[in-house]
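Duplicate of #3305? Posting structure anyway:
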């Protein structure tokens, strides 16, 4: 049973790795030109934080999957919401850093944050541990949403 655990724990990292290629280039060019709030985390924190968050959310999905007996009818909503939030997470980077669409990225991250909350609500009766493992992710998304808003608000003229 370790193979599903490893696979589901690793899955979120795939989008993170692909997003990292886009981000690395843009952080050194376009992102440098933007006005950013003083309270933003340092750039070096983001890969460390996202590695931890992706690992936690992936393992959490495994716990829910295992508890519900795999991809069963009962798992459609909890794992469907998880899949939706993962897709919203993965598309944020190409929207923000790739296309420089800060407002569209803000809409995406607001939807993402709400979907993570809904995922956690659907997981709570299944696995409290999985739900709690998602709490740091939700907290980080709240910070990231505020940061996305401020960067968009302060740099609207630079949006392409």
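Output from current build:
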């Amino acid at each position: 049973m370790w193979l599903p655990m490893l696979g589901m724990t690793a899955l979120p990292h795939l989008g993170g790795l692909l997003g990292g290629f886009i981000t690395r280039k843009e952080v050194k060019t376009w992102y440098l030109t933007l006005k950013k709030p003083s309270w933003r985390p340092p750039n070096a924190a983001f890969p460390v934080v996202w590695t931890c968050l992706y690992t936690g959310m992936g393992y959490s999905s495994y716990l829910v999957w295992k508890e519900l007996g795999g991809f069963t009818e009962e798992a459609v909503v909890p794992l469907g919401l998880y899949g939706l939030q993962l897709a919203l997470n993965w598309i944020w980077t190409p929207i923000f850093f790739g296309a420089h669409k800060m407002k569209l990225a803000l809409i995406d991250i607001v939807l993402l944050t709400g979907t993570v909350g809904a995922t956690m609500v659907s997981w709570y009766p299944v696995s409290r541990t999985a739900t709690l493992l998602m709490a740091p992710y939700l907290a980080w998304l709240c910070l990231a949403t505020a940061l996305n808003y401020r960067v968009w608000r302060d740099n609207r003229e630079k949006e392409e």
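Confirmed duplicate; merging threads. The CA atoms of residues 13 and 51 lie 7 Å apart. Residues 128-154 form the longest helix (27 residues).
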